[in-house]
Amino acid sequence: MGSMARVNVAAIPIPGVDADAGRVFETKMTSPPESASNEAPDELAAIGLAASEPVVPEPEIIPTVSLRDVAQAMLKHITRERMITAGLACISIGALFLIWYLGTKYRFEFYIRFKNVPTPAEVFQQAAQVGLSNKFLYNIAISVRRILTGFAIAIAIGVPLGLMIGRYGRVRDLFMPVVEILRPIPAIAWVPMSIMLWPNNEAAIVYITFIGAFFPILLNTIHGVHSLDGVLVRAGRCLGANEPQLFWSVILPGSLPHIFTGLAVGMGVAWVSLIAAEMISGQYGVGYFTWEAYSLVDYPAIMLGMITIGVLGLACSGIIRMVGILLMPWLAYASGSKR
Q: pTM of the predicted model, to two decimals?
């Protein structure tokens, strides 16, 4: 260490204090403290030693989730109302299968004939044979891809066009005559024309699926804009919202319930159109699988194709309802809803 700096202390005369005592105080302050000179090297050595030692990080504590925690979290969402809903759904589906089982077991022939209808056991055996085969799974994947493509195009065109037609009278006067002419034409009637219009069968089938979903989505979106309370639009304008802000913050949220109704209806019509198109001009898909089974007089395969179509349609409708619940949480507090 370098030389210790000298501290000069002025002697201040204090009444009642001897002058020699003041000089002693001055001497003690000017001399370097022995304890500081002795302890400073030890402290610096300790600091250097601590700096040279590697710092060991504390182990990170990763929270673990047990099966008990998962079960408790799931039980919190199970309410009495949901249990009743699930029970009624099981009763309705069970009644359908019970009628099927009794009709095929006793071969009812009272106006409705169950003579050639396969039993549930035969259909189950057919499902076990082809359910996990690559061909059957490939047909399902092709149908799902077609339905999602056509439905996405219908949403991308139908929802914005419906909002514009419902909002602006001039746009309505321009497009509604064409819509009213094309809307009554069934999607199945478009099969010959779509084969001529599009370069391959895949594009033609997607187009027919789009036609089936487009008009329900468009008309329900228009109805949603027309049903919107005008007070909300006027309130938005009073708060300084421009036209894009009105569309995004007022018109679109207010029309969402009707839009999702159109999506649910459009999904059902899209599946009907897809299966019909696959039966007529398709080479793959669930509809083609069902029609091929009919051509080969394979009745269990026919029932398997029909059940597969129903399950896929139920899954698509359920996804639409779940998305609607997530995007419209305020409907849980509307009048007549189940809170």
A: 0.72
